[in-house]
Design goal:
By secondary structure, the chain is α/β, with parallel strands linked by helices. The protein has 20 helices and 13 strands.
């Protein structure tokens, strides 16, 4: 039988454990404090992996053995993004960049559209890539052409990136097309321009984030542009390991919840409904606030006893001084709910806010989100989701099980208001939906699921490219 530790040893061990946990909580609090700084927020999401550094970290590559992407070791991959910013498309491509670096791929990054002015965000993101061994090239020039010709794989990110092909590659376009994987995220009609996608039928494949988006692209390109989509691969996204670690740490969630709520002036017993997206009409913050106001009216009319409710809009940017954001704030003041609605600057450190809220609202309008990463991130935190019945959200949220869906557009305001009241008055249903959402994430929306799906696509594209070269 093992000898029981002495009391002094036990106390020492307990002290070390408490010190370690306090250190971890302190770091998490620093994350929360930094959540309003977008660039810092990005460094906390995806950067905590251990990819190769600029000099080639062989220990890191060895640690990646067993990764489904291991076959990409030493492959030269050129990534072409239409821009480099804190928006979904570029950040998804950066996430793939670090997955590839982690297994030892040679990765080169090109940003096609760059602002003429000095941009702190672009500067920070480029240096993050450089620090992880990614070569960053100018969009135009002989080096870009040579890299495209030598690369084993070229990934164009978003439809707009198609504008890079002709001006840069010129007469080399036919040579490069057979090894291009086109990663498409858009659901807006203005992306369907022939100048953007005329080469789409001739690439090795198109990778799209949801079945809904893929079907939309197939019908629109065929009907409007009279071109056919290439082989299309559906790759649902997954949550990062870092986010899952926070989501599954009960103590961390509690600390973050308390910190954010205190900063907002929201009590622990209050209910907090959040919309976490960059503020724009397409994301539906205006309709969400209308529905939130209506829900308060319904509760008053029906004399329901529910906790005090608050709404939080994460993704604000008053520096931009957009007419839309001004309208949002005017609506709040006009209807006397300024003490119930909170605006937070845009950030990529979403974990503190997911820990702090009770329900996520995904209110993207028109055709909805291509996928909507924030939806699976919320489900990882065991949050029910109130989403529009459009786009990729319908492939994530199971209506009536992991959340509730409502129509997009103005006709969705009243149903959303009723769904807000429904969840506000049913704590058991919130908990049940949150648990089912978490189970669904563990089943299909983890980082390793995404890596496996992307690996299958890359293998097929490489096979096609080699086959074309031999023929």
């Amino acid at each position: 039988m093992a000898k029981a530790p002495s009391s002094s040893a036990a106390v020492a061990a307990e002290g070390r454990g408490l010190a370690h946990h306090r250190t971890r909580l302190l770091l998490l609090l620093l994350v929360a404090v930094a959540a309003s700084a977008s660039t810092v927020g990005f460094l906390l999401r995806g950067a905590l992996r251990d990819p190769c550094d600029a000099h080639g970290d062989h220990a890191s590559v060895a640690a990646a053995s067993g990764s489904p992407l291991e076959f990409m070791r030493s492959k030269l991959v050129l990534l072409v993004s239409h821009e480099l910013s804190l928006s979904g498309g570029p950040l998804l491509l950066m996430e793939l960049t670090f997955l590839l670096r982690h297994v030892g791929s040679q990765v080169v990054w090109i940003t096609n559209q760059r602002s003429e002015e000095t941009n702190d965000v672009t500067y920070s993101l480029e240096h993050k890539m450089l620090n992880h061994g990614v070569q960053v090239l100018p969009a135009r020039g002989q080096e870009a052409v040579d890299t495209a010709r030598k690369a084993d794989l070229v990934i164009l990110n978003t439809a707009v990136a198609g504008k890079w092909l002709d001006p840069v590659l010129k007469n080399h376009v036919p040579e490069v097309l057979p090894k291009i994987l086109w990663w498409i995220h858009e659901m807006r009609g203005h992306y369907f321009k022939l100048e953007y996608v005329k080469h789409l039928p001739f690439v090795a494949g198109a990778m799209i984030d949801s079945h809904t988006t893929a079907e939309y692209w197939k019908s629109r390109t065929s009907d409007r542009l009279k071109i056919q989509m290439p082989q299309t691969y559906i790759v649902h996204l997954g949550n990062s390991k870092e986010l899952m670690e926070v989501a599954e740490d009960g103590v961390a969630r509690r600390v973050l919840r308390e910190h954010i709520r205190e900063s907002l002036g929201v009590r622990s017993e209050d209910l907090l409904f959040a919309i976490i997206n960059s503020v724009s009409r397409g994301k539906g913050q205006d309709l969400f606030l209308q529905a939130f106001y209506q829900s308060l009216q319904l509760i008053k009319q029906q004399k329901l006893k529910v906790p005090t409710m608050h709404a939080i809009v994460v993704g604000s940017d008053m520096n931009a001084q957009t007419k839309f954001e001004t309208q949002l704030r005017d609506f709040v003041v006009k209807n006397g709910i300024h003490d119930r609605v909170h605006f937070v600057n845009k950030t990529l450190a979403v974990a503190p806010y997911l820990a702090a809220i009770d329900v996520l609202v995904q209110n993207s309008q028109a055709r909805g989100e291509c996928f909507g990463r924030i939806t699976i991130e919320a489900m990882a935190f065991k949050l029910p989701v109130l989403g529009t019945a459009a786009g990729g959200t319908t492939e994530i949220v199971v209506d009536g099980s992991t959340g509730l869906l409502h129509p997009a557009g103005k006709e969705g305001v009243a149903p959303l208001a009723k769904n807000i009241v429904r969840l506000a008055s049913r704590a058991e249903q919130r908990a049940s939906m949150g648990k089912k959402g978490y189970d669904r994430v563990k089943e299909r929306f983890m980082e390793h699921h995404m890596a496996e799906r992307i690996a299958a696509v890359l293998k097929e594209v490489l096979r096609k490219s080699r086959q074309h070269t031999r023929s």
